Amino acid sequence: MRIIDLLPKRVWEKVRDAGIDGYMVVIGAIIVVFFIFIAVFADFISPYDPISPAGPAVTPPSPEYPLGTDSIGRDVLSRLIYGTRTIMMVIIISTLLSMAIGIPLGLISGYVGGKIDRVLSIIMDSIYAFPGLILAIAVAAVLGPGTYNTSISLAVVYIPTYFRMIRGHVLSLRESLFIEAARAIGAKSSRIILKYILPNTLFIVTVVFSLNVADAVLTEAGLSFLGLSVVSPTPDWGFDLKNGQRYFLSGYWWPVTFPGLAIILLALGFGLLGEGLNSILGGGERT
Amino acid sequence: MTSLRVYIITRALLTIPMIFILLTLVFVIMRILPGNPVLAIVGMKATPELIESLEKQLGLDKPWWVQYIDYISNLLRGDLGRSMIWGRRPVIAEIMDRFPATVELTIGGFIVSVILGLVTGVIAGVKPGGKIDATMRIYSIVVYTLFIPLIGMILQYIFGVQLKLFPVGGRIDPLVTPEHITGLYVLDAILTLNFPALISALKHLVLPSFTLGLVLSGVYTRLVRSSLIEVLSQDFIRACRSRGLSERVILYKHALKNALVPILTMMGLQFALLLAGAVLTETTFSWPGMGTFLMERIAYRDFTTVQGTIVFYAVFVALISLVVDVVYAYVDPRIRY
Predict the structure, then answer these.
(1) What is the CA radius of gyration of chain A?
(2) Closest Cβ–Cβ partner in B134, B295, B310 for A20
(3) A66 to chain B nearest CA, in Å?
(4) Contact: B21, A126; criterion CB under 8 Å
(5) What pLDDT tens digit does each residue of chain A (287 aa) get?
(6) Per CATH, domain A14-282 is 3.40.50.880
(7) Which of A28, A75, A149, B165 has CB 3.0 to 4.6 Å from A273, enough for a Cys bridge?
(8) Distance CA A125, CA A77 (A)
(9) Sequence-ordered list of residues with C-beta below 8 angstroms from that of B116, at least 6 positions apart, any chain
(10) Chain B residue closest in CA terms to A251
(11) Domain segments of chain A: what residues?
């Protein structure tokens, strides 16, 4: 994989000729862009205020309330729309945090090697082996609810994923000719890492990012379903699903089903995108 | 010494740093992160005297490194402390009340995911590249994104409320609870030949196990597929074909057996996924396991129990991955140091 393959035109050519993988990338991208659009323009799309009652409680879907109302009369569609914003915020902040810690550590560990590498690797592998949701629960329980705290909980879980990926890739890059050449002409380690190795790991990051986010969406939804993510009355898919659970078995299906489907669809969008890119661009480890 | 024994000993020794790192991680999360556990327990309105006495009681007034030494040395003695609510029972005893339920659920989920994964993986791997293969690939991606609580509730509604085939929650009918031997109700019922209990326990297990197993089956679909494709391309399979064996015999008697070996390696990580998924499954189905226990104690701000439960998870995961690796080494003689 070369950087040139990451240019939009090259990626598009590959996607076009890739058959089923190509369809996966396109469908995944459409879903993701759709949700980003909703998150950005929530104020304009949302028919009602998401946090105050818009009508009678538990009204089934109707022209007036397209997805019905919840147990205290809030519009399910409006909460769904603003909930997109909540989950997107958490995903973006947590991913940036994971990258900011995982990538530099992976670069150093892979390039420097030796004792530092061994120590960092065993630490990261141990965290990686621990069930992600349970780790996030522990951190969230101590930090308390809120967007930033939830982001930190998720970030902790996914640092090892970025670390392992980058480290593995650096190990193979380190032996390549152009790095050896750089070393031969006397480039400093810091320069080699930043100028030659980092740019070449970027494609791995894009692939991992997408697969990882699919997982992070489900973990965030899980955390908020367990009541550890946001503070009521913030609209949040997992939390809304939890609130609807009590009434679901009596036949009030809409306050649960729609947020649930939104979670699945968003995770699926990132999953298809990452999966397709992974197999088209090659490389990258499955998470 | 045989190389297998060397492998097992080395692998066991490697488990020690892993457990140590995870215990340290739990310590950092519970004690060093901002967020005062004592304030969390008693609430913001507590008097300074109350906070001080609780801090003393939990040892939180000491410097962090003294706390760390206390923490590790207590754990080395197997002491997880005492619960802070309801009779202050030892945490380990409380965990042991709930642990069998989670084991039973994870085994159920595991069986379902392996069966579904084997069927879909073989279907995909026999004819790679075709439409069926593509469908199975989409299956593996889609099932992984199915959000456990939603799928669980839909199954509860269809099979519990509408068809009344299976109970919607709980572990067993309280009237037929079997004598406590292992705590695994299915096993206890079989051991005591208590058939009403066996049937009740199995009926309660069906929906939660299926929910958990379905979501995690996609991982096995992939593994079985890729491993089967690799085995089918090997020389010994060609030799089988040239001897005129039927495709059916080749697949089931020769290929599948070899294709299953690499799947063992994934079981360690798969187990972590099962445990995480079990937390959501238990909450959805009011299953009285470790997951519901942890959430309940977080809600009651039972600091020692929460810490103890996370520690227990950590040790459990490390031991499972050790066992999986050792079993793998037995099965595949190429794995040695």
Answers:
(1) 22
(2) B134
(3) 20
(4) yes
(5) 455 566 667 777 777 777 888 889 999 999 999 999 999 999 998 888 888 888 888 888 988 888 988 888 899 999 999 999 999 999 999 999 999 999 999 999 999 888 999 999 999 999 998 999 999 999 998 888 889 999 999 999 999 999 998 998 898 888 888 888 888 888 888 888 888 888 888 877 877 888 889 999 999 999 999 999 888 888 999 999 999 988 888 888 999 999 999 999 999 999 999 888 888 876 544 43
(6) no
(7) A28
(8) 41
(9) B213, B214, B217, B220, B221
(10) B157
(11) 14-282
3-state secondary structure of A69: strand
A222 contacts in chain B (CB < 8 Å): 147-148, 276, 279-280
Q: Provide the shortest C-alpha distance from residue B108 to chain A (in Å).
A: 18
Nearest-angstrom CA–CA distance, A26 and B205: 39
Going A267 to A153 to A102 to B26, the CA torsion angle's sign is negative
Residue listed under structure tokens 């309330």: A65
B89, B334 contact by CB (below 8 A): no
Q: What beta strand segments (E) does chain A contain?
A: none
Q: What are the two backbone dihedrals, phi and then psi, of residue B246, each rounded to the nearest 5 degrees?
A: -75, 155
Question: Given its phi and psi angles, is residue B81 left (phi above 0), alpha (psi -120 to 50 degrees) or beta?
Answer: left
d(Cα A46, Cα A279) in Å, to the nearest integer? 37
pTM of the model: 0.90
Q: At B180, is the secondary structure helix, strand, or coil?
A: coil
Contacts of A238 in chain B (CB under 8 A): 149
A223 touches chain B (CB under 8 A): no
d(CA A273, CA A253): 30
- Put simply, whether A115 touches B (Cβ < 8 Å) is no
User: Which residues, numbered 228 to 257 in chain A, qualify as contacts with chain B under a Cβ-Cβ cut-off of 8 Å?
Assistant: 228, 238, 241-242, 245, 248-249, 253, 256-257
Residue tagged 């799309």 (tokens):
A45
Q: Please name the residue that has the structure tokens 């593994």.
A: B223
The token pair that represents B271 in the structure block: 């187990």
